[in-house]
Write a structure and sequence with these properties.
With about 290 residues, the protein is of the alpha/beta class. Helices cover about 40% and strands about 15% of the residues. α8 links the parallel β7 and β8. The protein is globular.
Length: about 290
């Protein structure tokens, strides 16, 4: 196994595949998963000649089960240490769900030359929780429910989420994959209950508005209108308005975990963006102008 040890003594597990001279793509996983959630994309982009890297966030997967630092500032600092350790330059950072928040928080603070582009895939920015400045957000009671269920029976919660809303397996006619459900459960149960409990606050209450405004590199925002975990109307369209150089790609019927259920669609759009090609937009797409700085 490959790890780095951060300044506070946390061991961060990571995978690093491919030619060292190739352009690096760094994948950031969602809650409560691990780098393994990106196996399909890592193999795909490895086959396209890229260097692919993915890490287990602290408290998740094979990284240290940390008691402290389970919040976005530290998550982004861990990424910065990993990037420095591997000396990644001109990298493309792709984040799903909570990992999208981590990408926004890191890229907004990255040193010049480290980041070329970024992708937010069904990601939590700008902010999930409902509050005065975000009236369309998800009520705090929903996240309190996650916390209560995790504390009461984490193993059951980690079956219920992938069996239902995460992959859209609760939709009529859905083709259910027992393997995806089991793999989601396996990844979740590898991590620390305390770190994952505290990460719920990190992904739901962190406000990424200023991060998005500060990012200068091109950003592809991909979001599905049928996302049952991170509601579309309060995420993707709002994020792209805040970005200086953002593009919104909307899927109509794909689930939150679309990179696993529909990798052929997602990988093609990611590859087009990575290569600098035009990402095909649906015929009824609405072009969103950024909010002036």
């Amino acid at each position: 196994m490959t790890h780095i040890t951060t300044k506070d003594g946390t061991r961060i597990f990571y995978k690093d595949w491919g030619p060292r001279g190739a352009q690096p793509i760094v994948f950031h996983h969602g809650w409560p998963l691990s780098a393994d959630d990106w196996d399909n994309q890592m193999l795909f982009f490895l086959g396209e000649g890229y260097r692919v890297i993915a890490h287990d966030r602290r408290g998740h997967g094979r990284s240290s089960q940390t008691s402290e630092g389970n919040e976005m500032d530290t998550y982004a600092a861990d990424v910065a240490e990993l990037v420095e350790h591997l000396d990644l330059r001109n990298a493309i950072h792709i984040g799903h769900s909570t990992g999208g928040g981590e990408v926004a928080h890191y890229v907004a603070r990255a040193l010049p030359g480290r980041v070329a582009k970024a992708v937010l895939l069904d990601a939590v920015p700008p902010v999930m929780v409902k509050k005065d400045s975000n009236p369309g957000g998800t009520p705090i009671e929903a996240f309190d429910g996650y916390r209560a269920a995790l504390a009461a029976n984490r193993a059951q919660l980690y079956l219920d989420i992938p069996s239902g809303p995460f992959y859209g397996f609760n939709r009529p006619g859905a083709k259910v994959s027992d393997g995806l459900i089991r793999n989601w459960w396996r990844q979740g149960m590898m991590g620390s209950a305390k770190a994952q409990y505290e990460c719920i606050k990190a992904f739901s209450e962190t406000d990424f508005t200023e991060d998005l405004k500060a990012i200068e590199v091109p950003v592809l925002v991909i979001h599905s209108e049928d996302d049952q975990i991170v509601p579309y109307a309060d995420s993707g369209p709002l994020s792209v308005k805040l970005l200086r150089n953002g593009t919104l790609k909307t899927y109509k019927d794909l689930p939150h975990g679309c990179a696993a259920t529909h990798p052929d669609i997602v990988n093609a759009d990611l590859l087009a963006f990575v290569r600098g090609e035009t990402v095909a937009l649906p015929a009824d797409a609405i072009l969103v102008e950024p909010i002036p700085a």
